[in-house]
Here is the input.
Amino acid sequence: MKREWTATELVVVFGMTREERDWVSGSAAHNRLGLAVMLKVFQYQGRFPQHLREVPPAVMAYIGLWIDHLTQKQWFSFSSQHVVGENPVSFQSATYKSP
Here is the structure.
């Protein structure tokens, strides 16, 4: 998997559909990030990652923001208007550069 992603690529490749969000949100909170990462990487590559280091930090962060969004929705009982078709992420730069 490539290591650097633009914001547009992250949205197109790793954005979650309503059905995917519903499926992931039905699992225990501590499993959601791993489940979502496995799902989206499998959809993109046709295989599950062997190691966490195979998934670029920008991809993990983007999917993690979706999971945070789902958790907030459950905790605060946001209406479905806040989630449907909404991208919860606003990036200035979606690439990860090590310090």
Q: What stands out?
A: Helices lie at 7-14, 18-25, 32-45, 57-76. Confidence is low (pLDDT under 50) at residues 75-86, 90-94. The two ends are 21 Å apart (CA to CA).
